[in-house]
Amino acid sequence: MKRGEPRAVFLAETRTGAITSREVARLAGVSQATVSRVLHDHPGVRPEVRARVQRVLAETRYQPNAMARAMKTSLTGSVGVVVARLSNPLYPAMLQVIGAALARAGLRMVVWDSEHGGEGPAQVALRQGIVDGVLLTTATVESPLLREAADARVPVVLVNRTVSGAACDQVSSDNVAGGATVARYLVACGRRRIAMIGGTGAASTIRDRERGFRQALDDEGRPLGFANCEQVDTFSHETGRAAAQRLLELARPPDAVFCTNDVIALGAIDGARARGLRVPEDLWVVGYDDIEMASWGAYDLTTVRQPLDEMVGLAVGHLRARIRGDASPPARDCLPNGLVIRGSTARTPMPEGAREGVPFTKDQA
User: Fold this and answer.
1) Could you say which of 196, 240, 250, 325 is the most buried, measured as most Cβ atoms within 10 Å of its Cβ?
2) 156-186 as b/e, with b when 16 or more CB fall inside 10 Å?
3) What sign does the CA torsion over 144, 146, 150, 156 have?
4) Quick check: helix, strand or coil at residue 160?
5) pLDDT by residue (tens digit) across 139-189?
6) Integer Cα distance of 34 and 42 in angstroms
7) At what angle do helices 21-28 and 32-39 cross, to 10 degrees?
8) What are the φ/ψ torsions at residue 205 (nearest 5 degrees)?
9) How far apart are CA 304 and CA 184, in angstroms?
10) Do the beta carbons of residue 308 and residue 329 sit within 8 Å?
């Protein structure tokens, strides 16, 4: 661009060709190194300088040359995200948050669904160096990708799930405390016949929620009876509906049921209604995760909310640090959850005497 030439003219001229970072630097009045630091979200750039460079990047529609960057840095700018059970609305919601966080970091997201053949392509991608790192949202101790990533020396971060002994960063919420909070809430509110619908023990999330719930009931002198516990093989509306109906066929049916995720809780509500029971008048139902449908008026589900934004933010931060070469010991982040009280428990607040140590969210009753 010639001195004094309007930027609009320069932009019009460059639309037909690829603008370089050197031209971005000249327009912003900074060095090419500063442009590179802004592109990589590197600390040490003054806010006003960062804003000026970002404005020029937006105006020029600058796009880094991925192939050139990969050859220069041995990085692809892509991150693999492994998910499962996309029928559970929690995981599409988590993917949306992860995608936004990676986009803000200038990274691309490659998604693999492990339940539908995704782990094979993911393992190939790790071996071929197609991705710089991996976020695992549904890992278990048997996940082959954990071994594959270690062999390929590709950074891995677990988010939502945890795996004991895995030598990688792990970010989760406190599922043990969340389950315990539900138990204390139900007991403090006078529920006498408390039941639970849980699942298999492979997933740390479900295992920990059940453990916290059972332990808190034991501490309250109200142990969970064998007959009052239903286990489902898959988490779906139908399995929750069927499990709730089996509980309601007991000689002394429950007056409250804790479901270890929201999907089965929604099924439990419909299962109770199908038997002519009213929620919450005849049966209280509590879920876990606070998926979008939990707040719908048809369900108005009391549940435990996980801090997805904070969990994903930490996980992406750890992964970016590992990609840059951070060799510090693996991090273990466990964030607090919050109880969201809604109509499925009659919007009954936790009694004052039982509130100590119980986290609530801003939309509690």
Assistant:
1) 240
2) bbbbbbbbeebebbbbbbbbbbbbbbbbbbb
3) positive
4) coil
5) 776 777 777 777 667 889 999 989 888 889 999 999 999 999 999 999 999
6) 9
7) 110
8) -60, -55
9) 13
10) no
